[in-house]
Design brief:
There is one protein chain. This protein has a single domain, classed as 3-Layer(aba) Sandwich (Rossmann fold), CATH 3.40.50. The chain is 54% helix and 10% strand. The protein has 19 helices and eight strands. β7, α18 and β8 form a beta-alpha-beta unit. The chain binds iron/sulfur cluster (2 copies).
Length: 424
């Protein structure tokens, strides 16, 4: 591993505590990923990135900052990357997926806040994540209540801009989101000192669409009867795509998709024929949260699709590229982003339609609907999700978990029983 200590020191990180995190991560990566057999060769890229997750990409971001570029940290798939890219800015995901950061979040937030929020706040305040240190500006959104309040806390420590996401999806809400995107664009122009022109925004829209198409190719390969890649590997690819340069992300995903499509032609599978196929739905799985995938895939099943923000919601639906004015382009962005079906919207029947459609497309034998503890939005939607699936004759298991390992055996027991039921 290259020596990044100086870089971390310059970022004002708490090196001693960060060392503890660096000690546990390689074991987790080894246990979850390296124990798998017959992995696609193209995973070498993501293996390298995750092995130096606090080194390689942070160092690149710092180099770009030296050239005058600004880094924007985001927490949600409603924030349009295209606007930042059009102003020569860089976007990096910031959601925290490790229990390591949760106690730091609990120092300033109620314990009954979802672990994703607690970990994100803990990562910033504890100074143990370089991405949280590097971002010049954080971009929040008014999705769930916990996040809204957490942004107030983070905003005391770092420049914070919050986008006001509508709660419904009527035409007037789509227009409102367009206005919100236009205002965000002004803020980004001001912060970067770069004007967003129609041409630059058109280029950015094309670039992010290209990345979406590449991610979709990987996912499409998972629809095959053959299983060319494990859910764990697909999840790792997806999680890192939130941090990576979009052009390189597209290139690497296309390289992986080439290999997966070839595997499908050759009948090369990572699991024995007949292994039960699981569609996972629910709250996002921020890196390094691999807990559920790991349990499912070591309990005799395989994850073939994730209906979540770290999954299909990140790449489905492209932005219309034909806009010739900024106003038309902002509207096209609004229309695309408002197609995301997050539980923070009401009503949110679109998510149920998505789950039913994806279960069919990915030939899922069963669905696991899992939310993070204290996420009321997704927890409440479980009933409607489960009723719709039962009506469609698709078996479903509803679960709740957090980032701790303490419930792992309990989860395993329930998942094994579910898989056994599917096998029978
Ligand atoms: S679950 Fe909702 S709030 Fe969370 S990242 Fe996805 S869209 Fe945003
Ligand atoms: S998992 Fe739920 S509570 Fe947590 S940030 Fe997402 S929407 Fe909010």
């Amino acid at each position: 591993m290259a020596d990044y200590v100086k870089m971390w020191e310059n970022l004002g990180m708490d090196l001693e505590t960060h060392d503890l995190l660096c000690q546990v991560l390689p074991t987790a990566v080894g246990d979850v990923f390296m124990t798998q057999e017959n992995r696609p060769k193209a995973m070498d890229f993501w293996d390298l990135v995750i092995s130096e997750v606090h080194g390689i990409r942070p160092a690149e971001l710092i180099e770009e900052q030296k050239k005058g570029r600004k880094v924007f940290g985001t927490f949600c798939v409603y924030v349009p990357d295209e606007v930042v890219i059009a102003a020569n800015g860089i976007v990096t995901g910031l959601c925290g997926g490790s229990q390591f950061w949760v106690p730091g979040g609990e120092a300033v937030l109620p314990k009954n806040t979802c672990p994703l929020i607690k970990a994100s706040v803990g990562a910033r305040l504890g100074r143990t994540c370089p991405f949280f240190r590097i971002a010049d500006m954080y971009v929040g959104e008014t999705t769930c209540d916990g996040k809204k309040k957490a942004y107030e806390i983070l905003g005391k420590d770092v420049p914070m801009y919050v986008m006001d996401v509508p709660q419904m999806k009527r035409e007037k809400d789509i227009l409102k989101w367009k206005e919100e995107i236009a205002e965000f664009a002004k803020k980004v122009e001001e912060f970067t000192g770069n004007e967003i022109t129609v041409e630059k925004l058109a280029d950015a829209i094309r670039l992010v669409n290209e990345k979406r198409r590449a991610l979709k190719r990987v996912y499409d390969a998972r629809k095959s009867e053959n299983v060319p890649i494990s859910g764990r590997d697909a999840l790792l690819m997806m999680q890192i795509s939130f941090f990576d340069d979009p052009a390189r992300c597209a290139q690497m995903c296309n390289r992986l998709a080439d290999e997966l499509e070839q595997r499908n032609r050759d009948g090369v599978s990572v699991v024995p024929a007949g292994t039960k196929r699981i569609l996972l739905t629910g709250t996002p799985l921020a890196v390094p949260n691999w807990k559920l995938h790991n349990i499912i895939e070591t309990s005799g099943a395989v994850v073939v699709c994730e209906e979540m923000c770290t999954g299909t919601r990140y790449f489905e639906n492209e932005v219309d590229e034909t806009g010739t004015t900024l106003d038309e382009q902002f509207m096209a962005l609004s229309r695309r982003y408002m197609k995301n079906n997050c539980a923070c919207f009401t009503p949110n029947e679109g998510r149920i339609d998505d789950i039913l459609r994806l279960a069919k497309e990915y030939k899922a034998d069963g669905v696991i609907d899992c939310s993070l503890k204290f996420c009321n939005l997704y927890d409440i939607e479980k009933k409607a999700v489960s009723e719709a699936l039962k009506q469609a004759g698709i078996p479903v298991l509803s679960l709740e978990t957090d980032y701790e390992d303490s419930d792992a055996e309990q989860l395993r027991t329930r998942i094994e029983a579910f898989v056994e039921m599917l096998n029978n």
